[in-house]
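Hi support team,

I submitted a single chain yesterday and got back a structure, but I'm not sure I'm reading the token output correctly. Could someone confirm the output below corresponds to the sequence I sent? I've pasted both exactly as they appear in my results page.

Thanks,
R.
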Amino acid sequence: MLMNKNRRLGFLPETDSLKLMLVVIAHWLIVFANFSAFFILAYEGLTPSQNPPWYIGMPLCTFIAVITFSRVIDCPITRLENKIRKRLGKNTIGGFVKHYLIKPYARAKRKIKKG
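Hi R., thanks for writing in. Yes, this is the structure output for that exact sequence:
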């Protein structure tokens, strides 16, 4: 996917489909909430005066990490996005985090090394 330099919101897909855009925005919100919850739970679980205790926070952090980076477990929102992408004639994505976070970072890093 080629990135248009004139786009204001490069972290969203290039599309005229409102449905796809809403799914991607909802997915971003869920990823941000899980990312935030991971660090909040980890911090609060390691401080004795806060709740929840470590034996609750640690398994929840592990669960969030497994769900986020699992290649086996399919995310239902990613499946929905792929269905919409197929209907629009676009390529499907393998995973949200890889497609919208890791690949753009790798491309930018390669571009900086070349230039």
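A quick pointer for reading it: The mean pLDDT is 78. Let us know if anything else looks off.

Best,
Support desk
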